[in-house]
Amino acid sequence: MTVAVVRFGGSNCDRDAARALSYLGIENEVVWHEDGLSEDVMGVVLPGGFSYGDYLRAGAMAARSPIMREVREAADAGVPVLGICNGAQIGCESGLTPGAFTTNESARFQCEPVHLRVERADTPWTARYEAGDVLEIPIAHGEGRYEIREDRLAELEADDRVLFRYCTPEGEVAPSSNPNGSRGAVAGVLGERETVAVLMPHPERATLPSVGTTDGGGILRGFA
C-alpha cells in the first residue's frame, strides 16, 4: 500500500514530493496519470508544477484527466488526498474542494518563504501542530490567489474548513502578510471530508533538513 504521487504532463514537483515522503518513511510511487491508481492506494498527492502549461486556466486540463475520476472516487471512500500548488488548482477545478485559484494580485510569479497560521489542529494534515501555530513554508506560483464568493467563504468558515491562513511571523492575519491577495488570507482549505485538503504553499520544500525549514513535514505526515 503506497501513496500515489500523480504526474501529469508538465508536473515538476512530483519527485520533490516523493523524496519528502520517503524521508518521512512513507512508502510512495510516482504514477503517470494515464496509468491510473492501484486498487490498494493509501493516499494521493496532486503535486505542483505547470500541468499542460497552465493553458485555459491553471489546473483546468489536468482536472479533466480520467485519473481524476479515480481520485475523486478514492477521496469519497476516505483515501487521503492532498493537492499542493498546481495540485491545489487541480483539486479546485475538479471539485474536490471549493473555490478557485487565479492570478496573483501582483500579476507576477512569486517564489518566497511565507508564514501560515494553523487554523485547526484536529485534521490528519495538522495533527502534529497546535491551532495558532505559525509555519514557515515557501510559495512558488503565479496563480495562487484564492477566490470564492463571500457567502461561500462564510460557509467554509462556519463549517471550519479553512485549514491555513497567511499571516505575519507573529501569527497576525494582515494585508501585508497576504502574498497573493487571497480572499480571507486563505492558504489551504478542506474538502467535504477532512481527509481531503489543498494548499498553495509547498510543504515538500519544507521537509528535508538539508533545504532549510522542516515546518512542512507535519502536513505530509497526514499520510502516516
From TrEMBL:
Pathway(s) this gene product operates in, as recorded in its UniProt entry: Purine metabolism; IMP biosynthesis via de novo pathway; 5-amino-1-(5-phospho-D-ribosyl)imidazole from N(2)-formyl-N(1)-(5-phospho-D-ribosyl)glycinamide: step 1/2
Keyword entries, A-Z: ATP-binding, Cytoplasm, Glutamine amidotransferase, Hydrolase, Ligase, Nucleotide-binding, Purine biosynthesis
Matching Pfam families: GATase_5 (PF13507)
EC number per UniProt: 6.3.5.3, 3.5.1.2
GO function term, MF aspect, one: glutaminase activity
Catalytic activity: N(2)-formyl-N(1)-(5-phospho-beta-D-ribosyl)glycinamide + L-glutamine + ATP + H2O = 2-formamido-N(1)-(5-O-phospho-beta-D-ribosyl)acetamidine + L-glutamate + ADP + phosphate + H(+); L-glutamine + H2O = L-glutamate + NH4(+)
Active site: 85 (nucleophile), 202, 204
Main location: cytoplasm
Listed InterPro entries: Class_I_gatase-like, PRibForGlyAmidine_synth_PurQ
GO cellular component terms attached to this protein's record: cytoplasm
Keyword Zinc belongs to the record: no
Annotated localization: Cytoplasm
Stored Gene3D superfamilies: 3.40.50.880
Keyword Ligase annotated: yes
GO annotation terms (biological process): 'de novo' IMP biosynthetic process
Quaternary context: Part of the FGAM synthase complex composed of 1 PurL, 1 PurQ and 2 PurS subunits.
HAMAP family reported in the protein's UniProt record: PurQ (MF_00421)
Function: Part of the phosphoribosylformylglycinamidine synthase complex involved in the purines biosynthetic pathway. Catalyzes the ATP-dependent conversion of formylglycinamide ribonucleotide (FGAR) and glutamine to yield formylglycinamidine ribonucleotide (FGAM) and glutamate. The FGAM synthase complex is composed of three subunits. PurQ produces an ammonia molecule by converting glutamine to glutamate. PurL transfers the ammonia molecule to FGAR to form FGAM in an ATP-dependent manner.
UniProt protein name: Phosphoribosylformylglycinamidine synthase subunit PurQ
Organism (species): Saliphagus infecundisoli
Encoding gene (name): purQ
